[in-house]
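Our platform keeps sequence and structure together, in a single record for each protein. Nothing more is needed to write down the fold, since each code stands for a local backbone conformation. An entry from our holdings is shown next, in its original layout:
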Amino acid sequence: MKTCVISQSNYLPWKGYFQMIAETDIFVFYDTVQFTKRDWRSRNKIMTPRGPTWLTIPVGGDRNRRIDEVILPKGEWRENHIETIRRIYAYSENIRDLESILEPIFENEKITLLSEFNQAIIRKISEYLELNTVFMNASDFDVKGDRIQRLIEICKAVDADVYLSGPAAQNYITNEFENSGIELKWMEYGPFDLYEQCGPNFSHEVSIVDTIAVLGKETIAHIRK
């Protein structure tokens, strides 16, 4: 059985995103769809001693562009974000691991698109976690049809038997997969154990940056069922 996940690329995703990557054979970045402002594509949270704080890439709110068309802005946000991560997790056992993952990507000015930037981070973290998932892009496929039919066609194009979807898609996926030859499964995140976190109240809903800072290579055992 071959499983496929089709999902938009997020900025510094939470650990549930990587749990999905760990549970699939093929992960297709679905960055050919419309960009949505104030969403996970351009922001995420990390934990601080005062609670979660946002790291936001200032890409603007223009919705008339696809995710893979969003251009990264100039300015100091790259330096500010990486410095914030260094400062918050300075005394974490695995801060060097974080730096080795993130710094080369943040410092690479040749990466000019949000999609490319997010994907580079996701691929590098997956490599660090020793995940063997194959990554592809929706732009690699010439698929037609409505919103759900395109998902089905991508699954068929990669010879997938199973489509693993995040639970939020239950708002718009109904019975479309029933006669497609593709089995639809719903992702169940966790359950995740607690670990020592710097904030006043523990939260699972922060970037995996937080988990790696504390657990390092043990993060993969933390996110796998």
About this structure: The chain has a mean pLDDT of 96.
